[in-house]
Amino acid sequence: MSDYTLVNIRQSEDMARRYGMGDGLEGRFPRQALGLEQTGIGHYRLDPGYRLPFGHSHRTNEEVYLVVQGTMRVKIDDDIVELGEWDALRVPPGVMHGWEAGEQGAEMLAFGPHAEDDTDMEQGWWTD
């Protein structure tokens, strides 16, 4: 018998709401429900024009963002990268980044290793 876990990501708790991230963002992280020990996964839904209110970086982990619906922009240090459906973007460790949805909103998956206390955050990092 195989050892596997099946979870519907959209049925995971919306952690953005739980932590008061405001209207315009849903964030679901089914790592524990899946029993993941080394890998992390996140599912995000962003309303049109929603910008993450902080930038963040990971000291040792890289991340991959995959846009599955809509468009978004990602600010990586001083660069801004435009992403469309099925574009995947790798962000290396130690690089500050943040994202915002395009005119129709966006749905995105994020993948990366899981490590406790690996994230540095800066509120209001992306300003025009």
Describe this structure in words.
- The longest helix is centred in the first third of the chain and has 4 residues, at 15-18.
- The protein is mostly beta strands and 128 residues long.
- Helices cover 6% and strands 48% of the residues.
- It has one domain: Jelly Rolls (Sandwich).
- It has two helices and eight strands.
- The strands form two sheets. Strands 1, 2, 4, 5, 6 and 7 form a six-stranded antiparallel β-sheet that branches.
- The protein has helices at 15-18, 31-34; strands spanning 25-28, 39-46, 54-58, 63-76, 79-83, 88-91, 97-113, 119-123.
What structural class do helix, strand and pairing data support?
Answer: mainly beta
The total strand number stands at 8
What is the residue-averaged pLDDT? 92
The CATH architecture term is Sandwich
Round the Cα radius of gyration to an integer and report it.
14 Å
Query: Can you tell me the overall shape?
Result: globular
What do we call the CATH topology?
Jelly Rolls
Number of helices: 2
What order do the SSEs take from the amino end to the carboxyl end, as H and E? HEHEEEEEEE
The share of residues in extended strands comes to: over 45%
Instruction: Say which CATH homologous superfamily is assigned.
Output: Jelly Rolls
